[in-house]
Amino acid sequence: MDKYIYDERNGLWYELQGDYYIPCLTLPTEKEHKPIGLWGQRHKRYLQEHKRAVYITLLTSGKLNCYLADINEQATNMMFRLVEQMADREGVTKQLKAESPILWIGRMNEIQARAREIIYSELIYT
Questions:
Q1: Above 80 in pLDDT, residue 29?
Q2: What InterPro entries does the entry give (predicted)?
Q3: Which of the two residues, 70 and 31, has the higher pLDDT score?
């Protein structure tokens, strides 16, 4: 028996595995490989654990990496925008940083924590 055979009816190659021929299937390759980043990795883990069908669909269509890179970019931009807006609204300025660095660090950490929670609820865990 041949190790590989080609079926002209469906255009697939088959490989001999034991007594059976198994189709040689590959996933489509993505055109670009953008870095996924922290937010994209968290969303990927969420999809794998809670939205399995969406994850498998994106994976088999070859669009998973692009989708996750897009989520990462959106989350990063949202983080910068939210932190800047909250800091302006609450009066956390460079002047406060110069006068009281410890207070400024504490308030910025609070702002960043709130911004992360907003991103989790609106982008990552949806």
A1: no
A2: TnpV
A3: 70
